[in-house]
Amino acid sequence: MQASEGMRRFDLSGRVVWVTGASRGIGAALAVALARGGASLVLGARRIEDLDETARAVAAAGAAVLPVALDVTKTASIEGSVRRATERFGRLDVLVNNAGIEEVRPSFDVDEELWDRILDTNLKGAFFAAQAAGRAMRAGGGGSIVNIASLTSMVGVPTAVPYGSSKSGLLGMTRALAAEWAPFGIRVNAIAPGYFRTSMTDTFYESGDWQERMLGRIPMNRFGELDDLAGAAQFLASDASAYMTGQCIAIDGGFLASI
Ligand code: NDP
């Protein structure tokens, strides 16, 4: 195969991508990256006005964009988003299941409210987004789902038990859906980002010697930049990963590979 043919498999022209949690952080960065890769974008977050900045950046990349208010804890909201997407673009090819929340708390103090809030968003929300998107993908002959997992899908982080449980569950869901939906041409994979500074993680960076301790665990000795995630997302979204399903790519500067 010629190099140019290999590169063509990354092309997302004509593909419709839905990114949940696209108003800031990782979701916003991935939406813009995939728009630059040729895709049309459907953007979701709870307040539609919060999607303005990402929508402008996607449009500046030359892509068609549809912002839709979305609360992944509500299945009616999820289904409404997929309906709007297919009405506007006629199809849905890719879901980046990114919407997520985190709150650290010692496990003895975790109450039902916190557990439900995190699990409803990160795991239940991700499942029903995959289900609704999967139905549209099945109707269109296939697609690709990219779940945004975490280091906590693989290792235990003290005081992050609800979050780690949700992200470990997300990886189990990735494998089970991959096995079930392969016959429909729907691939399901995950990306596990290491530490990326966003509004979710900002307080960690500001607390005590956290940065120093974490850098000591990261062989590359730096935190992730949002651009570090773009290549893997485009790979998993596109035909470049056509024979890959049920897998997780860690992008963590070597954290999981080392002791
Ligand atoms: P941010 O807090 O910066 O962004 C989270 C996004 O999710 C926002 O757009 C937010 O919008 C949206 N969101 C939250 N709740 C809902 C909901 N109920 N319905 C729809 N959208 C929702 O976080 P990050 O960018 O850091 O995180 C993105 C994903 O990456 C998460 O799944 C996180 O767990 C994961 N991750 C992050 C890491 C990091 O280091 N930052 C590391 C590993 C994984 P709004 O609140 O307006 O609805």
Describe the structure concisely for a colleague.
This protein has 259 residues and is of the alpha/beta class. It is 43% helix and 15% strand. It has a 7-stranded parallel beta sheet with strand order 3-2-1-4-5-6-7, with helices on both faces.
How many beta-strand runs? 7
Oligomer: single chain
Bound molecules: NADPH dihydro-nicotinamide-adenine-dinucleotide phosphate
In what order do the strands lie side by side in the largest sheet?
3-2-1-4-5-6-7
Question: What is the beta-strand fraction?
Answer: 5-15%
Order of helices and strands: HEHEHEHEHEHEHHHE
CATH superfamily: NAD(P)-binding Rossmann-like Domain
Using the alpha-carbon principal axes, give the shape: globular
Describe the 3D structure.
- The structure is a single chain.
- This protein has helices at about 5-10, 25-35, 50-60, 75-90, 110-140, 160-180, 200-205, 210-215, 230-235, and strands at about 15-20, 40-45, 65-70, 95, 145-150, 185-195, 250.
- The protein is α/β, with parallel strands linked by helices.
- It has one domain (about 5-250): Rossmann fold (3-Layer(aba) Sandwich), CATH 3.40.50.
- A 7-stranded parallel beta sheet has the order 3-2-1-4-5-6-7, sandwiched between helices.
- The longest helix has 29 residues, at about 110-140.
- The model has no long low-confidence stretch (mean pLDDT about 95).
- Bound molecules: NADPH dihydro-nicotinamide-adenine-dinucleotide phosphate.
- NADPH dihydro-nicotinamide-adenine-dinucleotide phosphate binds near residues 21 and 195.
